[in-house]
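Response to reviewer comment R2.3. The reviewers asked that we include at least one raw input/output pair. We reproduce the pair for Major facilitator superfamily domain-containing protein here without editing.
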Amino acid sequence: MGFKLSHLYAPPDVNPVTLKARSIPVLNPVDIYGRVFFFSWFGFMIAFWAWYTFPPLVANSNIVSLCATLLVRLVAGPLCDQFGPRNVFGGLLLVGSIPLGLAPLVHDARGIYVSRFFIGILGGSFVPCQVWSTGFFDKNVVGTANALTGGFGNAGGGITYFIMPAVYDALAGLGYLPGQAWRLTFLVPLGMVISTGIALILLCPDTPTGRWSDRHLHAQREPLNLDAHHAPSNFDLETSIGTNTEKANSIVDVPGRITDRPDPIETSKNKKQLLPRSSPDDANDDDSNSDKQDDKSSAIAITIPITLEPSNTINYNTHPTATPNHPAATVPAPSTAAAKETIQPPTARELARVALSPQTAFHVLTYACSFGAELAVNSVLAAFYAARFPGTLSQTGAADWAAAFGFLNVVARPLGGIVSDLLYKHFSSSLGRENEEGMVLWWKKGWVVLCGLVTGALLVVIGAINPGKEGLVFALVALMAVFLEAGNGANFSLVPHVHPRANGVLSGLTGAGGNLGGVLFAVVFRCMDDGTDYAKGFWVIGVVTLVVNLGVCWIPPLPKA
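Raw output as returned:
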């Protein structure tokens, strides 16, 4: 399914098995999928804005929040799997608003750092943002969706550097003293964080199928969903219970063995549907029913009351679904589709399995190099520019050029996800079996590694050569930023495929890895001649990035199980 301009605003086609959208209605927040997409990136952007409220006002306070955010991301992943990403997302925004609202009450440096630490809770909202987006968009666009929500959200860090000083200047112009003005500026992000947290909880669903607690029911009644959309399935309802599936409360003769008892499936309306288990003998039951009735020792005809919901009572949000000629119509059997992608409550055994898998190590280490390097470089870039060109570049000019590094996230991170999805579409023409998906995902994984290698090489070039021309330095940093931030998007394009039943756990571990990398690389900059040799710091981080990506490139994209 190629891109069309209407995909930006029209209700998307949905996968009939998982009910995930196969396009992204970016410009249609009224649609359920467009609404979730909007609140995913907007909520994360507001959280990022509030997370960075201190740096423009109080220097060197942002590093304190990285440790807090790391811990929150580790916890947020399992919480998403247990309670749903929407609830965790809204909860983090509302809980994070408390220290944000109390920040103006501090009166000394210690209070500022304590407040900044707890405001770091808001940085953990990245995890539910990605898990929520993954739950609403199908595999053909999930990389783009995650990259867009992450990239747009990261722009909140750049917005902070413009909005907070502007609000401060406006309040100072109204006659407020500096000590009063900087405290009052917190009212703006505080109001946005609270209102956004409440809005996404009230206006958005947990999953495309309804409430988080009912997500398993959709997988159970998937055979009826497939039949309603004429999609192939291992469950042939027309053969088993007759062709009239829209007649409710009917009496149906179901041939079969006495041991083939139907399975009751409880629907959300508390109605019971009875589906016979298929067996190799069922295909010829209609032709040999009379003969089997004579041999009562081996088989009987079972007459049972069966309640079938008409197909038009299932709410698909009026979105087009698969047809026999649509690619979405070719879907796996229920046991390998919706059930496989249904997130399970985390257990200690599952947490250990995911945390210790080589695939998790790949994502954590590569994201530590990409997002970790982004955090560290962003924190020193203005100082690097000012120190490298002291005679020609003012402090304000250096800060403006450094801000461009963060704003490239709006383009570069989505680019990483888009390229990843294009590779997936191009090489998945024969997608069907698990091992074939693993082969296709090598291309997604290769794109992650390529971004890491190019980033590492450019960091080494910037640090080793340390060019003396402003234009050349700006160009090299911008090119490095494109591959660095594209690597972030590419990483979370692959994450949804790896452990789909524990997507929150893997997302939390990967996100925490990014924060850990930010802390470690910040230490690298501080250790280079007491934090003054920025070029050497670039060189060291580049070498680490190259070594890590080469060291994990052999890991298969999917676990063997």
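The mean pLDDT is 81. Residues 142-173 form the longest helix (32 residues). Further pairs are available on request from the corresponding author.
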